Amino acid sequence: MQEIGITRIEELNSNNVEQIQALYEEFQVKSTTDYKFDIAPLEYQDFKNVVNENILKGFILFEDSIPKGFLLYVIEAHKAIELNIIFVPDYDNAKRSALLQALIDLYKDKTDWNVISYPMLGIQDSFVRDIVLQGFKLLGQSIVKFKFDNLVSFQILQNLILSELPEEYQITVWRDEYFDQASEAVHDTFRTATDTNFDPRFLTLEGCKDVVEKIITNVFGAFQRNCTTVILHKDEVIGVCFVNVTDIHTANIPLIGVKKAYKNKGFGKYLLKCCLIQIIGNVQEKRIFASEANAAVETDNFPAIRMYRKIGFKEDYTYPHAYLKNPIFSE
User: Fold this and answer.
1) In the chain, what are the domains?
2) pTM of this prediction?
């Protein structure tokens, strides 16, 4: 336990989780607005259960025995510490720093974790200066959106005429039999990408299989197999664009990738355009409910941003993704 004057920080556990019920429920209200979460957090009772099962971990900051903030994280199988939220209602960066330092101090001498990964969504970006002083590095992320009520975006989409696919290539939708080859395509696309700084799963094929498995088993939202587009060359998967519905407003594209040997041939635009047309068709036929499609892209990945713009997407907002590598990590 860490003491700071009349302030104390405790690890979150089954004995103190009930003390933050009101604070957690306040976070729930603000999660999709102030904190821009795509998926609403667990209801309190479910949250309490996963804390009691030691699946979700964290810290609570108390002032005069009153909880004033909390930090939540999980330890993933791929050795990443995924920091979900630092919630301090008064936005006091000293309190945020204290909570974060408690996490760093707990793990700084341990070798079995690779990275602390922290997407600083919404108002959390006001903590950027302080988190850099605590040793974190930052990567810029941009959220791009195609809003279904935007006539200009529809006009851009309709005006984008792509040439016919070369012979022996075809676009199709997801089948479970594509799992292994799609995972290989994701690995080939992302193993040298900046994403590996905060998500080491992309460094290995097994890690990429874990990512794809989570997408298609609804961990990141309701998987849309009829909207997920796949490009084949001689029946081999060379690219894929996944789709999940994360809430009643949003069809999310969590991953789009094309094998490096097939880059710069326009296949990414094929995948994205066909995927978006499938989403729009499913919305119009009321098979899914969404008012927009979105995706995340690095702010300095100009080719990807240009591709999204050519389809009709627009940059909506940016956020920093913070990460801290473990200098003593050992497999």
Assistant:
1) 2-135 (3.40.630.30), 142-319 (3.40.630.30)
2) 0.91
